[in-house]
Amino acid sequence: MSYQATNPLSNEFELELSRPLTAYWLATLRVVVGWWFFHAGITKLIENGLSFTGGPAYLKGMTGTALGPIPVWMGNNLAWLIEPGVPLGETLIGLGLMVGALVRLAAFFGAVFMTLFWVGNAGFGNGIVTGDFLGLLLFVTMIVLATGRYFGLDALIERTEFVRNRPRLKYLLG
Fold it and tell me: What is the rounded distance in angstroms from the CA atom of residue 51 to the CA atom of residue 83?
């Protein structure tokens, strides 16, 4: 018996990347993750401006984590970068994802953030799969599937003469 005969959804439900359902889902995923990061960043900006002291304070308290003394050193010596960098980074990553502009670049930096959160939080008591790890997987998914091309500005930006004359720029888009 063939696979098609045993699959009742074979003629009704397709998840090929060329299908409309997939495009809608990838665009929805991108916007929701964008809102998640935008909301986190804009809230920090509204409450603290560019002086998000919670970041360096958090790092200073990470003495017994998997990263060892590195985050403590960062909290003590890089506060000038972390205080404005976290809220601005989260806000810009979120905006880029929501409008679908420079999605691969934004998702790369989102993946960097989530990697640092995942390793830094080091709450592996229930295994390595945590909320931070799942966030990391979402960002990697957006990079791999170029989700900015689905109802995002990247689809328009890729058609510009500037990008067509510089094909390597397509790797930042999507």
Answer: 5
